[in-house]
Hints:
Blueprint lengths: L8 E4 L3 E7 L15 E7 L1 H11 L4 E6 L4 H9 L4 E5 L6 E6 L5 E7 L17 E4 L3 H9 L7 E4 L11 H6 L2 E5 L7 H9 L4 E5 L5 E5 L4 E4 L12 H14 L4 H16 L20
Parallel strand pairs: 1-4, 1-8, 2-6, 4-5, 8-9, 9-10, 10-11
Antiparallel strand pairs: 2-3, 6-7, 11-12, 12-13
Helix pairs in contact: 1-6, 6-7
Amino acid sequence: MIATREGPVRVLGPSAWNTMVRLGQLPEPRTQMLVADECWDTVGGTSAGKAVHLHDLGVPVVLMTPLADDDAAAHIRGSLPDVAVEALPTAATEHHINLMSAAGKRVSVYTVAPATTPVPPVAGLADARAVVLDLAPWTRELALTLRRGDLPVWTDLHDVPPESDWHEPFWRAATVVQCSDDNLPDPFPFLHRLVDDGVSLAICTRGAAGAVAVDAGHQEHRQDAEECAVVDTNGAGDAFFSGVMAAVLAGEATPDALAAGARQATRALVTRHIGPGIRDGRTGGVPTT
């Protein structure tokens, strides 16, 4: 079992204001005119997603994310449910245009790219029950200063390739690691290598195929995806991560934690937003669906 302590979960990483464009299929690389099936604005970013789902699960959470004094940041704050946000200084808040196909494929265009963000001091994380380090240049700098065990670190490597110097500081600092199988046709060798390196639980999400994991004893686990009426796939990986995290922090065993992750993933899949309780950030209105 992974040891835990009191305090909030501190989620460090990106948030963004996104314009979502749904198309029947992603466009070919040629000059053309397209008509969108649907278009909407919403909060995004992998760390915002995790914070939303941890909040949904009743886990005390603080989202530590770069937000400037601009409209995009105001929209993000207005969209989030009652999640505690600690804004980190930056020149401009991220904005993406995401092209989404009916099959759930995505092309993200950064219209405002991530700006420089100061690395928060490790001492400011000392009260955390756990720390989530999501991928960003500034969180990588923080990861480089940590040794595994300095803090209870969880990380999400997303579409990490089997060999990646850029991602390595994150898993070197972490006790729990999640990734996706986008660049890992057979994820088990990579997951076993993470455990050999000292990771206590290594997880790989596989979309509609569910997830697999390797625990500290090198036992392999498999989890089917939960069936649901899929509206949009954005945020499902962050929801799965949060479901597993909440279960592990509650003392549940790996099979039960993976099942909890699969259940929570459906909370993202059945909405066109990253999770439940997202409001119309332009008006501060009621939660959307």
